[in-house]
Amino acid sequence: MVDRLANSEANTRRISIVENCFGAAGQPLTIPGRVLIGEGVLTKLCRKKPKARQFFLFNDILVYGNIVIQKKKYNKQHIIPLENVTIDSIQDEGDLRNGWLIKTPTKSFAVYAATATEKSEWMNHINKCVSDLLSKSGKTPSNEHAAVWVPDSEATVCMRCQKAKFTPVNRRHHCRKCGFVVCGPCSEKRFLLPSQSSKPVRICDFCFELLSTGEMAACQPARSDSYSQCPKSPMNDVSDDEDEDSSD
């Protein structure tokens, strides 16, 4: 079906509409063989709070952006190559239901659908597209992915030292390796994570120690249905701290 739609006028027209909705600031999306599989609004767990985002699934990329005017205008376009994507279901918790993780080497985050059926359809279509792409390219699925950031609201004190309380003056920071919310003194180190940035990025002292000694394997996610969790430190444990409200 995808091959049949690839060069159809209807598919070309649909992709053109998506391009126009993002305006001049968005990247061109029309290329030979690309097919728009589906679209919809998903709730993305951002740093500050969950927010509605418009998602478009193509046979080779996943695109999302902020909603300015539904069905008419979107901004802050993000394009994710599906070859690098792996997804994992998330267990329902409180008001956050029907969710799954979208994981890539550069960025990972949680999204939630309105219904269980919608979640199932999204996950099935994404998995099918990824499987088809890998089959055609002969590549293997990526086993490296960026940590999912723990939302600011989940931490009133530093998740490493367990002492520093966050205030308007004592700001929250995120370790780019484990995704923990940490205080400034616990995250003064920088380390080069090539999959995330060409420059050294902020990481917590605990991850810095593991990376420096080559023991980072001990800090891999233990569960696929929750945020990336690293072992507690002996104390019981992109740009710098970009705000999801402005840069998503």
UniProtKB/TrEMBL annotation:
InterPro entries per the UniProt record, alphabetical: PH-like_dom_sf, PH_domain, PH_domain-containing_F, PH_Phafin, Znf_FYVE, Znf_FYVE-rel, Znf_FYVE_PHD, Znf_RING/FYVE/PHD
Superkingdom assignment: Eukaryota
Record field: compositional bias (Acidic residues): 238-248
The entry's keywords: Endoplasmic reticulum, Endosome, Membrane, Metal-binding, Protein transport, Transport, Zinc, Zinc-finger
Keyword Signal listed: no
Region feature (Disordered): 223-248
Subcellular location, record wording: Early endosome membrane; Endoplasmic reticulum
Domain (FYVE-type): residue spans on this chain: 152-212
BP term (GO), one: endosome organization
One term of GO molecular function: zinc ion binding
A Pfam family per the record: PH
Topology within the bilayer: Peripheral membrane protein
SMART domains: FYVE, PH
Residue ranges occupied by any PH domain in the UniProt entry: 35-131
GO annotations of cellular component type: early endosome membrane; endoplasmic reticulum
Role: May play a role in early endosome fusion upstream of RAB5, hence regulating receptor trafficking and fluid-phase transport. Enhances cellular sensitivity to TNF-induced apoptosis.
This protein's name: Pleckstrin homology domain-containing family F member 2
Native source organism of the sequence: Eudromia elegans (Elegant crested-tinamou)
